[in-house]
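Hey team,

Filing this mostly as a record. A colleague (T.K.) asked me to run one chain through the structure pipeline before their review meeting, and I want the input and output archived in the tracker in case anyone asks later how it was produced. No errors, nothing strange. Just documentation.

Input sequence:
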Amino acid sequence: MQLNYLINLIDSHPRRYRVIEGTLKGRQTVATLFWAQQYGIQGWFGYRRNLSRDAYDQQLAQWAQAGLVAIDKQAKTVRLTARGQRERNLYRHGHYQPRCGHLSWIVNTTRFANCFLLGIQTVSELAHQNNRYVPLDVPPAEMAAVKQWFYRYRPALVSGVADECFQLGHLLEQTDPRWPQLLAASLVGYQTSGLYDQQLRQLLKLSADSLALLKHDVWLTVAATMLKKPDWLLSRLTKPLLRQSPLSRSAAKTLACYRSGIPLDEISRRRRIKITTVREHLLAAAIQLPGSVDARQLIGPKRWDEFADLFRGPVASWHWTPQNGSDPAESFFAFRLYQIVRSQQDG
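Output structure:
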């Protein structure tokens, strides 16, 4: 796949290129989450989970050689040149721009699509009473899930799934008429094999990278719909693949302990994780679930007021310096938490 879409994530102001890479790969480190929010690129979170670092670095190097970007290897940042800004504006005008990155935490779209499409195929063949067909080649876990679902709900599948697909198409069309087109053209079933990417590109008049981004949006929206429609038959099939929270399971457990009033050091002891990990979990929660932690209480009223006097202007320009006699790790945790909350307040 072409990497031309990367130009969307670069700006005239320097940005950390590993943050851009981590955002595309869906890495949930605090640094990636925080800086993606500052750069306004969180909408791209998880769009290219299989992105190769070599391919990514080579693309930046090619653009640097062509005079589109400037790379500072010491600071590990990249920025657009004036020529690069013109190229980015041209690219945005003629290519699909993703809209659903805020939903990327819900599901791995590759696994979800495999499960969904195989489920549709089995129902389509059932509707035509055909039990001699070659199923889609999907991993064993998805194959087993579809089999279990098929035999459990078989009597209701044909009419139920048909109605759900009709509703789903209507919902997708409200956002972009190409979305239901892509979904319908991708379906496999009785005497239909679905279109390949090249055929989809011709149908929708999209470049290769635009098609990949649009596909990702469609599957994220379908997955989000499954969460909202838990009684649907298709939701019952895909439910095991869907997450209920953007936090990792471990971070969610830490947050639950914190919200029940357990001190951080006690959470560390009970959960047998480092205190630094506890703090990382709470920072992730502060970013992904605004308002889920009491920042003033964790930082302390006195230090909160000190920070308010000390740090002004754009949050991204602040620099942290450890105070003499303080625990550097705890001090940085307080600083970063204050940064997160202030950036959210400033909008």
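Quick notes for T.K.: The beta strands are 15-16, 69-72, 77-80. The chain has 16 helices and three strands.
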